[in-house]
Amino acid sequence: MAATMSRPAALAKASRGRLTVCAATAVPKQFKAVKPVGDRVLVKVAKEEAKSVGGVLLPASVRNKPTAGAVVALGDAKTIKLSDKVIYSKYAGTELELAGEEHILLKEDDVIGVLPSGDKIAQLRPLADRILIKGAKAEDKTAGGVLLATDSAEKPTFGTVVAVGDGKEDEETKALVKPNVTVGATVMYSKYSGTEFEEDGEAYIVVRESDILAQLA
């Protein structure tokens, strides 16, 4: 997998204009296992990259920590299995240090999707009401024909649906409600929604069904 969203070593969250830093919770050494309760899952975090793309060794302070890992323990989660490799929301969960290894305790709904054995984002299986979209290419010229620099090209908010989750359980009927979009459709989504990925020069984003604004035809 070429790239995922970064996660700081000590989780930083903005709260009312102030930055709160939440360090990982160290599980006392006498405890060898953690059993998630309810719909929670325990994920062993994938190893972070120690070198840049060009092979330069990075100091710990600037390394990008992955938001992916393998499921090592389950509560009552219905859509995830042991050993599944999953991608999860950037600021979700509680970080744990267990037996010297980095883990994260997540709610099932914080898991974005399950990765195939080849770790390809293009083959991600999104969970619940999430939708995997392959982003459209950004325009490299203005309407008047002026060539734009890469960093000033307007980022598109539409693309092609690659995969659709199985749906989300209705709170009243408990029936599974499948997202009302289909694979292959071109959709427009909210500008600041979802989780973005880049792989093999292509942009992907995973959004909730509620972030889909329209289908284009």
Automatic annotation (TrEMBL):
Top-level lineage group: Eukaryota
Record's keyword terms, sorted: Chaperone
Full protein name: 20 kDa chaperonin, chloroplastic
GO cellular component: chloroplast; mitochondrion
Pfam families noted in UniProt: Cpn10
Any GO MF annotation of the entry: protein folding chaperone
Keyword Oxidoreductase: no
UniProt family annotation: Belongs to the GroES chaperonin family.
